[in-house]
Amino acid sequence: MTTAARLGAGAGIPSPLRVLLVDGQELLSRGLRLLLDQEHDIEVVGEAGDGRAAERVVAERLPDVVLLRRGHASRAVGEVCRRLKSLLPTTRIVLLTEGAKLSAAEFAEVAVSTGADGQVPRDSPVDDVAAVIRAVANRDAA
Description:
Layout: E1 17-22, H1 26-36, E2 42-48, H2 51-61, E3 65-70, H3 74-87, E4 92-97, H4 104-114, E5 118-121, H5 126-137
Parallel strand pairs: 1-2, 1-3, 3-4, 4-5
Helix pairs in contact: 2-3
């Protein structure tokens, strides 16, 4: 189904939002999937343990948003973001950060180096994660 065919009434946001989770820790990824699947307007279309697997899933499932764990190797994260966006330029990328939310200035620097569109700390409540997914899908800063 095309994005245009899935547009929700009035909002301009596809419904449901198709989300790919990219995290090497399967237990946490599966838990996040179960929580996000409870959201009426979010559909987790796949999980990937690393960037290469994410590329395959992006090409097959065409997610609107990719939730990508940002570990310590920001150069590697930047390369994954660039490859994912080259496969599907319309996809939006949200970084799951390990610690507190980065300041606006810090995130701007990360966004320039990675191409990410938003961020959310990994220990955030699921409502916050869902809100960031929605905001980024709507092209709002998050």
